[in-house]
Write a sequence for this structure.
């Protein structure tokens, strides 16, 4: 079962709630947490998107527009926004939490951007976040969909503090006592009082190897370097990449390289929206979701099936301007 899967209606509800919280002078801090025990959010309602894509519907166009606008609003929200990234945090859940001003992970955190395995790419500002991770760590996580634990998320700059999950209720209680107008640095100090102080996870030890493999501008070059490296880790990484959508990986790599040279989250979201609409209409997206979510046979038939068969002509529509459909951010939010 999907863990707190977010729908279009939920994005609208969150946006309306932020309207109320922003206007209310008595609201000092916003805390985002997931219902239930399993996690914050495992992403969007991918089955509904798949159904709409099959009939050439417009759910993707509407949902991603409103979701990306909300992602940008969260990053700029004028009051402290504390996200408890406990348990599973994936896809759309990352968009609701990793752009917040104070990001708390736990020993239970399992954070991932696994979209390339669905014929998609890391969206919801994922290209912005991943492009700001140290070295090529973000390229690695974005292309492989590998799960981060809490300290990994700190190291990759997706989170700010590790707090034991057993202490979250006490932290939440402490946050309810914060006075309106309390500076952000004071919130940081409050959270630090509950935190373990961990700053890096297992991926930090892999930094040099990951940089050596992924510091390339082309997917086929990355594959060639991994193939030439006989280590178990390189071969395991190569096997993981072999399961992903070739087109999705090439699109993701280009989006990440463009994001690295982009200053704002909004610019990355505009670029992601263009690519998302193209992906939504593609066979790879429908096939990826079918294999992972609908039939669950884990055996997608990607088109094309090889990275070397992804041509510049295939890629061009993912990065082209889309006229009246371009993503626009409302004034004042």
């Amino acid at each position: 079962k999907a863990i707190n899967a977010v729908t279009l209606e939920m994005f609208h509800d969150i946006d309306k709630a932020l309207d109320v919280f922003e206007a209310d002078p008595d609201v000092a801090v916003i805390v985002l947490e997931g219902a239930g025990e399993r996690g914050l959010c495992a992403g969007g309602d991918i089955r509904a998107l798949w159904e709409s894509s099959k009939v050439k519907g417009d759910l993707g166009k509407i949902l991603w527009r409103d979701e990306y606008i909300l992602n940008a609003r969260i990053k700029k929200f004028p009051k402290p926004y504390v996200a408890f990234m406990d348990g599973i945090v994936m896809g759309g859940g990352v968009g609701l939490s990793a752009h917040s001003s104070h990001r708390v992970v736990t020993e239970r955190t399992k954070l991932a951007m696994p979209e390339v395995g669905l014929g998609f790419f890391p969206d919801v500002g994922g290209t912005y976040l991943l492009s700001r991770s140290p070295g090529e760590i973000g390229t690695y996580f974005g292309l492989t969909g590998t799960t981060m634990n809490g300290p990994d998320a700190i190291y990759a700059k997706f989170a700010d503090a590790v707090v034991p999950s057993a202490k979250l209720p006490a932290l939440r209680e402490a946050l309810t006592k914060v006075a309106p107008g309390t500076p952000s640095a004071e919130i940081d100090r409050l959270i630090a009082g509950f935190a373990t102080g961990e700053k890096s996870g297992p991926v930090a030890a892999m930094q040099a190897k990951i940089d050596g493999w992924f510091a390339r501008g082309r997917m086929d070059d990355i594959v060639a370097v991994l193939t030439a490296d006989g280590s178990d880790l390189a071969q395991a990484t190569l096997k993981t990449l072999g399961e992903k959508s070739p087109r999705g990986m090439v699109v993701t790599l280009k989006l990440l390289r463009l994001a690295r040279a982009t200053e704002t989250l909004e610019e990355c979201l505009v670029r992601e929206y263009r690519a998302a609409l193209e992906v939504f209409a593609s066979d790879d997206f429908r096939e990826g979701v079918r294999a992972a979510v609908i039939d669950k046979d884990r055996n997608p038939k990607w088109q094309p099936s090889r990275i070397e068969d992804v041509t510049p002509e295939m890629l061009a529509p993912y990065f082209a301007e889309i006229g009246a459909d371009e993503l626009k951010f409302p004034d004042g939010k």
